[in-house]
Amino acid sequence: DPYVELEAMKMIMPVKATASGKIAHTRGAGSIVSAGELLGSLELSDPSKVKKIVPFTGDFTLSAGTGDDESDDMMTQVQLALDGYVPQQEPAALVQQLFLTAPPYLYNELATAVLDRYLAVEEKYVEEVKRNVSPDQTYLALIAQNKESLDKVASIALARSQLAARSEIVLSTLRSVRAVSNGADLINLVKRLGELPSEHGYGEVALLARQYAEKINAKPFDERKTTLRSKLDNASLNFQEISSLKATAGGFEVLADLLDDESEVVRKNAAEGLVRRVYRQFPGLEVQVSDEGPSKQTCKYKFQYPDVPVEGELIMRDGLCCVLPSFDDFKDLMSGPIPMEDATGKCVNTMSVVISPNAFKVDKLSFYSTDEEFKAMIKETESLLQNSASTLKAAGVRKFSLMLPQAPHMPRYATFLVEQDWKEAPSCRDMRSTFRHLLEVARLDEEYDLERIVPAVGRSSQVFVGTKKGEAKGKLGKPKTIFAQTITHTFDSNLDGDQWMQWPENLFLSAVDELERARLNPDVGVRPNSRIFAHFNTVVDVEPLLVVDGLERFMNGFVAKHGNRLQQSKVDEIALKIGIGNETTGRTHTLRLTASSMGGEYLKTSALFEKADPLTGAPVSWSDAKSGADSSLDDPTAGRMELKRRIARAAGSTYAPEFLGMIKVELIKKWGEYRKAGGQRPVRSPGENNVGVLAWRCTLATPEYPEGRDIVIIANDVTFQAGSFGVAEDDLFQKASEFARARGLPRIHIACNSGARVGLAEELKPYVKAKWTDSSDPSKGFDFLYLDEEDYARFDKGTVVAREETVDGKKVYAMDAIIGEGLKSTAGGIGVENLQGSGLIAGETSRAYNEIFTLSYVTGRSVGIGAYLNRLGQRVIQMVNGPMILTGFGALNKLLGKKVYTSQDQLGGPQVMVPNGVTHKLVESDQDGVSAILDWLAFTPKTSSDSPPLLDPTDPPERDVTFTPSKTPYDPRHMLAGTVTPEGEKLTGFFDEGSFQECLEGWGRSVVTGRAKLGGIPMGVIAVETRNVDRRVPADPANPASQEVLEPQAGQVWFPDSAHKTAAAIRDFNRGENLPLMIFANWRGFSGGTRDMYNEVLKFGAQIVDALVEYKHPVFVYIPPGGELRGGSWVVIDPAINPAQMEMYADVESRGGILEPAGIVEVKFRTPQQKELMHRLDPELQRLDAQLESAASSEVGAGETAKEIEGQIRTREEKLAPLYTQIACEFADLHDRAGRMEAKGVIRKGLEWRRAREFFFFRVRRRLLEQGAVDRLQAADSSLSAEEAKELVAGWMPEEDDKAAVEAHDEAKMERNIEERRVEALK
């Protein structure tokens, strides 16, 4: 029997004793308890029936294997660890021991085995994870793929539970074989490791694998050096060619290694090439080289900063580059005068020293092998420069750089600045000296504490993680930002067509690659936001405003095309910098184009002209490129916006206002797709809202409404009070929805919330006291809570309802109720007032669905009333990581007393909401979600009283339908949208190519529903699945005895879920969408078994009739070729249900009737009747009948002869039975043909499938024209009934043929007729 009942979140769980005895409770009724807490003790009636738990005293030593070879035993331990078993020692130590005990010739084999075992698990897992789904959904997909071998899924789950240890094994393995010659199999496995995503715990493994793969794929250094040397061995060298070589062919590590070549020509050219490559595209560059032998060159050069326009003050700067054989020579150089003068007197010169080729004494096994020696040189250089400060000042040196080659790796760099007292600039370490200026590192350095992320993918890119100076530390540490800074020295300035999308796109995509690579670094991770800066260090000879226009088109197009990647990389800003001018005149303008979310709108573009300080070259002022007004790069709201974006992203969503910008970029994409298909186009600072719901009235210029259409968007702001609904939020939501209803506008709800707001009067907590029943024993409880007289006076009247009492002789106020009036903590509502508001918006949403188009997009969690609002609005798009729940999984686990549920997805994720029909469409990201919203709006009218939008057809209505349905099972989607055969033949479907949008795909799978366009006309679509499908009922994690159940469902049959789905889809098409409806009817009936009757198939079948009765738009029922419509399934869609709107057609190859031929033959053409037909038609039976009759009339031997003949007749009948059953079925089938249907008037016409598309296009077009005219006519003359209005319109469109009527339709004439009727009605 239960000895206690536990309650959590409205659910009761009785706890029963497993043995009988006397209970003694340790906690009283009403106590608040936690899991594992002692509730009572049981004195057993029979203690012998219970086995006592005693401590284990045996030996628990386990052995991983029994192999004689130590390396075999170690390999077994590694394999067990890779399978998910916890190793007895640290994973890295385990791997090190493995390779220490194994002979070197086995390294490749061992490493291959380790990586292969790791990938065997992770590649299966990642295959599902790449769809951006939760772990629960991933395992469900793996279970579906391995139904017959669930042990495989269990093995993957076990291995995944120890991912950190397994990844450490892989990392140690890669490091152990890094210096070994690798086989082809191992190289292939390393490349596959590098393809793992940066998320889900793979970051460090993928990063090391990619670095390893790059090393393997690179050409040998000596081969590159030999190739470059042959180019440099030329007295009349074209340095432009050397400067433009790819980094791998003419990079600094190769040039520097040739500075001690035996040929003077090669040495001098290498030195000059080094300088010219560093100062590529710097104007006025002049270089002079003197050579005194190997590694003893001096380069004197002059240059100007590239981004200072010609009309500004031009400062010619001197540069000195000294190539020295050793660091000691550098010390000697700094002890004397520097051969350079401060010609300008402004200290603008540059000096650099290259130590070549043997700057380092340690072995250069990797890029960072020289770290300790390099740091020591930096310290010594700082000291040398500080001691030579006066000498440097006399030479006008502002910046000093040290380059230390370490072939075959890239050189080490260090930069020292006069303004930093010749200290090294840490943000510029291992970065070419000009990058600080060209990549605007100095500007970042002023605002952020920078940490450089190495290595970068491209040599012309640098990636930093920045923490804002003075930023307060939050729960997750200081917020960080990733900066990807990249540069290019070429640009195609052809602004025609899509040229802007072809070349710059690659540079920006490489910057996104840099961001993704940086996130692989475990110190960076996936949390930081990011920004991209690209410097096109060149000039384009085009009018400035043309450049602005072209680059804005490029930027908008780039964001639209790659929105998903930009979102995944959390890109908040993309900046592009380019010069305008030509080689003759020089640079006239510097243009900075930015797509930024810093102001609150998603990646909004702006174009500024930039001016630089002639002395430092740093940008100092900006002006709007179009208006000329002064501007700035600093946005006062940027910090606030960045914080809100972080909060929203942490909740798995997007900051609500950014959905507007995402809609804009998706519209750009939709316009591009429309034009490609042949179509033509005819106030408060952001982020300061003090309410957790935002609303906008937006005007969208879409291909369907190029002049613009209005919609209302209501969004939860998850950054405010976690998106919870308080009184203010409920009021705003209700008013915005009411605003949409009053104007008939589509209402879009973007949902990411935590349900109704809950709280307590926090201000009262410090003053509340308890009146104990027994002050000496508080465990006996308390009588009431009270406030002292002094504390009671602190609060305004209305804060509490209290009565006077006496405690310890003092007057106190016992609290009967806490109102919380006037308190800050209760200002937004904390309880029942919020529930009342929830009821308000629930009712409003239900009314909105009945009156206008409503759609919810679930971008993050949606809880309680938030989940109900989605369902009340009916149409739901769900993001894979946006669960809809009523109770959190933590509360359920608390109730159950153990960890049963692991995520919210198990309660309301896609694996629940898609199969149960709440979710209409599933998307993988917010960008996909916005795209899905716009796709849906393409089928909806401007207002709820308008007809759906019509586009000029891009797919000719007159074309044939070449996919032909058959009597054998097929995919009905091919009938609707077309398909391509395995042989490559394209078969066209009924609707316009590419227009079919399926919804409710995972629910009621024996019916297919969606929207499509017929010659540009939006239509609702219902078709029938002819193949057998399964309905999955998941196991309940809370019930260990439950199991997943797969219920088979036959094709062409309505089941409870598919009947419900049909009725729901019809209601959706009718309400707010105003779509004409096409039903491809191919049902044999309803499933009427016990289980399905219990599951309300009768009720849902009746709802189909209800939905059709109230349908206000044309409905076309068409039985396709090979299809059949029988019994109750005919009844619920017969046009007699709604004769004003419904019409039925049948293909000439279709059938319709009460029973199938085989069934009706059993009742109406039974075996005796079939035998009668045999005896009437079969000559042999006629002969035997005659013989039998003759034998019966003979007196001699008649009995024996008759029996023999009767036996022959029976034999003949049995032989003919199958044939005559077919004849009977054919006879019955002739009653089901389209000819009889048409003759009986139950269908309008029999059609031929191939030409059905053209017929229905003109039929639908005519019906819409007639309906539009009828609606306008009744508005003009309210005395007309619908039938009278139809008769008048029919008289104005007298043509019998639909095509002729549509082509002869004169809209102006129709309007004149309606106007005449209006005038007549006013008389």
Structure in words:
Strand 16 (about 570-580) and strand 17 form a beta hairpin. The protein has 45 helices and 47 strands. The protein starts with a strand and ends with a helix. It has about 1300 residues and is an alpha/beta fold. Strands 12-13-14-15-16-17-18-19-20 form a nine-stranded mixed sheet, with helices on both faces. The chain has a seven-stranded mixed sheet with strand order 5-6-7-8-9-10-11, sandwiched between helices. It has a seven-stranded mixed sheet with strand order 35-36-37-41-43-45-47. The radius of gyration is 40 Å and the shape is globular. It is about 40% helix and about 20% strand.
Mean pLDDT: 86
Structural category is alpha/beta
Number of helices: 45
Q: Tell me what portion of residues adopts beta-strand conformation.
A: 15-25%
Strand order of the largest sheet: 12-13-14-15-16-17-18-19-20
> Low-confidence parts lasting 5 or more residues at pLDDT below 50?
64-68
Shape: globular
Task: Supply the key terms.
1323 residues, alpha/beta, 7-stranded mixed β-sheet
